[in-house]
Amino acid sequence: MTTEISNLLGRRPVLLVLGLATVLFLAVACSSDGEDSDGELVIYSGRSESLIDPLIKRFEEATGIDAKVNYAGTGALAATLLEEGDRSPADVFFAQDPGGLGAIIDMVKPLDDDLIVRVPDWARSPDNLWVGISGRARTVVYNTNKLSPEDLPDTLDGFTDPSWKGRIGWAPTNGSFQAMVTGMRLIWGEDRTRDWLEGIVANEPSVYAKNTPTVAATGSGEVEVGFVNHYYLHRFLAEEGEGFAARNYFLPGGGPGSAVLVTGAAILKTADNESQAERFLDYLLSEDAQKYFSEQTFEYPLIDGVAHEELLPNLDSLNTPDIDVSDLGDLEATQNLLREVGALP
Amino acid sequence: MNRPPGLQGFQVIGEQLPAGTGLSWSPRRLLPLWLRREPLSLWLAAIAVAGAAALPALYLATRAADSSDTALDAIFDPDTAAILWRSIQLIVLVTLGSVLIAVPLAWLTVRTDLPFKRAWAVASVLPLAIPSYVGALAFISAFGPKGLLQGWLEAPFGIERIPDLYGLTGATIVLILLSYPYVFLTVRATLWRLEPEMEEASRSLGRSPWHTFRKITLPLLYPAIGAGALLVALYTLSDFGAVALLQYDTFTRVIFNEYNSAFNRASAAALSLVLLGVAVSLILIEAGARRRARYYAGANAARRERRIVQLGRWRLPASVFSGVVTFLALGVPVFVLVYWLVRGINAGESELFDFTALYNSVQFSIYAAVATVIAAVPISVLSVRRPGLLSAGLERFSYVGFAMPGIAVGLGLVFFGIRYATAIYQTVFLLVFAYVVLFLPVAVGAIRASLLQVNPRMEEAAMSLGRSRINAFLTVTVPVIRPGLAAAAVMVFLLTMKELPATLILGPIESRTLATSIWTAAEEAFFARAAAPSLLLVVASAAPMTFLVLRERSSR
Question: Between chains, do B343 and A239 touch, taking CB under 8 Å as contact?
Answer without folding.
Answer: yes
